[in-house]
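Researcher: Next entry: AraC family transcriptional regulator (Tepidamorphus gemmatus).
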Amino acid sequence: MFVALKSEDFDPERRVDAFQSAAENICKLQITPAEDREYRSQTMIAVLPDLVLADTSHTACTTLRTSELAAETGDNLLIHIPLAGGFEICQRGGDTVACGPGEVYLDPTEVPGIATFAGARANVLYISIPRALVAMAGAVPDTGLRNVTALTPQWRLLLGYVRCLHAELPHLPPEQATHCAAHVHDLAVMALGASRDAAEVAAGRGVRAARLRAVKDDIERNLVASSLSAEWIAARHGISPRYIRALFAGEGTSFGDYVANRRLLMARRMLSDPSQAARSISDIALSAGFGDLSWFNARFRRAFAMTPSEVRAQARKNL
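Model: Predicted structure:
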């Protein structure tokens, strides 16, 4: 389920008051803009089983979680990850700390507190997880709460996966969205510092999913590079070639087949593009990363049940 909370959606005559009321009801926060007339805020909230994700962007303001509002939040861990701008925050039992891009703040939501956002714009990603889910893994020591920590590689894996999930969630079937929520739980456990057993479980699900996505993104950026190989990608990501191959084996394919299929799709798009009509098939094959034309032709026909020249001819007929 998605909830959009945008200041621009309210009547300009009472925009700030109406937005403040909605934010208090949905986010359990009292928001005081630094400047009423200039205040702008947008929050996109995704609600999944035992997981809430929110991407918030707003101008300068102060947010207050009173004791009464804190009591309505439940026993959750709220992870703050600033993407732009930053904030100062003080929760009962903790010090006033500053958190900006490259850092993470761990917020026990049942604790009252106040945060101040300065500057022209702040953009923060929030991840809310029941504390029981991560505490059972020994991943949330009390000393880690109400504190700022560095954005480690483990946190970056979580951040990358959550941002992708937040964007793609409207297009996912419910059962797949639930599966993805479990990935987020596992990645959070890893980032927070799990017990050995919990870490091994997470490595088998969430971390593998995030690793695979990061590897695929890197392949896409370097799809036509002659140096592209499992060994080259593994070195860039600080993992072993064997682990790279295992990630793709888990999807029922291989690294080589995945790369070849992505390159074949690229070649087919170019063969169907009228602006590429003057280029030879061999030139297109080379530009898509294929060095052996006969292998390209055989693989292309097997993938699409048509030769490259037949695909080009069909595209011309459809003009």
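Model: Note for the record: Residues 194-201 have pLDDT under 50 and may be disordered.
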